[in-house]
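User: Structure tokens for this complex, please. No commentary.
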Amino acid sequence: MSFEIPIGPQHPIHVEPIMLRLKVEGELIVDVDVDVSYLHRGIEKGLEVRPYIQGLYLAERICGICNCAHSLCYCLNVEQLLGKEAPPRARYLRLIVEELSRMHSHLLWLGHYFHTLGFETLFMYFWRDRERVMDMLELITGNRVTTAYNTIGGVRRDLPQEAEAKLRRALDYLEERMKYYEKVVDGEPTILARTQGVGVLKSSEAISLGTVGPHLRASGIRHDVRLDDPYSGHDEVPFNVVTHDGCDCYARVKVRLGEVVESINMIRYALDHLPSGEYRLKIPPLFKAPEGESLARVEAPRGELVHYSISNGGTNPYRYKVRTPTLANIFSVVYMLKSRGDREVYIADVPPILGGIDPCICCTARVLVTDEARRKRRILTLTDLRKYSQGGRRVRG
Amino acid sequence: MKIPGYFIAEALRNLFRKRATILYPYREVDKIHVPEGLRGRIEFDREKCIGCQLCSRVCPAKAIKVVQDERGKRPVFLIYRCIYCGQCAEVCPTKAITLSRFFENVALRKEDLIVR
Amino acid sequence: MIWEILEAAIFPGALFILAVSLFYEWIDRKFYARLQNRVGPHLAGPFGILQPIADLIKLLSKENIVPAAADRFFFTFTPIMAPTLILLACMFLPIAGLSGLISFEGDLIVLIALLSIYTIIVYLAGEGSNNRLASIGATRAALQLIGYEIPLTLALLSAAISAGSLSVAGVLEAQIERGIWFIAGPQVIGFAIFVVAAQAEMERVPFDIPEAEQEIVAGWEVEYTGARLALFRLSKDLELFLLSGLGATVFLGGSAGPVISGLEPLLHAVYFILKSAVVLLIFSIVRAVFARLRIDQVISFSWRWLMPLAIILIILTEVLA
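Assistant:
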């Protein structure tokens, strides 16, 4: 006997609405359907009607956790349109804050991940240690979450005097904690039982499903935008790309733990070699961008983030497009959740597998047309969207 | 090393540590440390303002209204819309706008959340 | 006669047991919070000691919703049965004396049977609410019973074999006679098995599979609200009291200890509470340091490790006895 179980749109493991329709036989999942279109906020359209400087703050709010990556990507994009480049000191400061925000995102993820496994104590400890990172972000940028640090042509404030010593102390503390947590993850059999061999995604499958970020690196692929396309001093600051050949949830935990340590080392190096000089270019707040198009890529904590914009010479972008990492990763969730052959997936494996990609749904929402009168809903196909965007005819649901 | 209950030692050690949480609205507000340069509630100096309206034009949240008073045009800040980005303070040519470290912007009346 | 009724109703009967079990919930929550570097309950009463009572009153005052699809009989019957069964089982524990309010040869078996019936009540509660998540939770609860029930029984029986008596009072008496607690001997293995199986019986981490919040929201109790949920919560507190008390009685010498004549009931109760609080703290630590297992892993764990261990323990007890 098989029946359908809804995971979402409201469910304790997601903060954001996503719908997984699981078809189960007992505890075994035989089929799965995913629906991500509960949260359409029209941000891309919003960016088109705002001056560039206002769009910066809107872009930052695409995602609260990776706000730093979004604002950096936006700035790189607009700087590319303007044909300008941030001064070296700004590039290093951007890197420091970006790595801090990666640490905060990964620690948040790790805590939440153990919460999904029912390991509440580790959840509390990770979030306690994350507070140190949040304090540092607050000290450097002026806010805990939405940092508003990057701006077009540099960063908005210099490193405060007392920040460096405090930052180094926090990094030492976190490095020691991370070493301990690695031991816990390797030493606690219940964690291993729940993560090893769960949600297997082989390297070839990961590539063909187009996954990005730590999720891809946990499948043993050495891919990182910071390495392939250095965008903010990453060609000068040495770092290792953390990969793991496990291809399962355990590998995903290990990769993220390793990346936190890697971020700590990168920040240390950047502090040691911080160039002096200007930290921002003088760019008037309201400006017109020259005609053209540009594309910027950033390695957000969740994976490769792409911002694309077209300018027609006005004060606003003509078109702005954002491709978030979760959208690239969500397909692999559907793949991993289906039992096939000797890979058996149980209901209890849903939280670790879905949580494993670090989903951020509000970045991801797609178009869905709901016809209330006829009680029909359908997802627009690529062809429909193309027609719609060309203004050929109104698409009806 | 795989041992069931690897975590027990660490958990028991934390039993004797100071708790990490801060009791918030009732007690221990003084334990919250606010660093220099936190972007909090906007403060406005009417004396310095020259009425250029730049703050209103850059505000991403449309939280700054421009009104006329006896000395000319001036901004009014709607804190209930403010996103604390500090862009207005950054563009102000005379530094008439500053962001204070006060962050508890909660009020029962809307008028209390307007800075004039 | 009136004295016996008072005993059953107030001390050391129902009222006392309810009060202590709510106090135990507070200990559990506070200790768990301190392990996690948090405050824990701190608003109601000094150090939040009244928080479990406040929670109970709050739940009792909430709206009582019966889903249209639910089976009305099971939906009403099971929340009443759950705390009643556990309260009845608590009466077998020697609290203010060396034998329980109800005591006869073989009451240990009755106690274990009551615990199993409680799981069946849980199953009926889940299936009766006619919800897909509740149904999965109920099935998991019944499946988990297969895993932990036999090791739990064997662990308790090995103590009974060692004591040569099948009653709780007899097991306690044997410990007093020998002047040594059962935990100081081969029964320490039995105590370990008991802690693990009790954790599964109480549906706590790492065996909180039937109500796994992150997977099936609240499992079998997902549809229960208001007073019905309050009764289930109460039965969980009572279960905490019952199992920590049972562990203390069978393995730690329960209410036995030096007494001053005249104050016997009170001193026995104090010893009982102190010893069972120790067992309770062990339960809390176990809850804090594990991740939740999967249902198939629980079954294979208990049949691969707990069962052989329990059988070895029984053989060892027989050889030594």
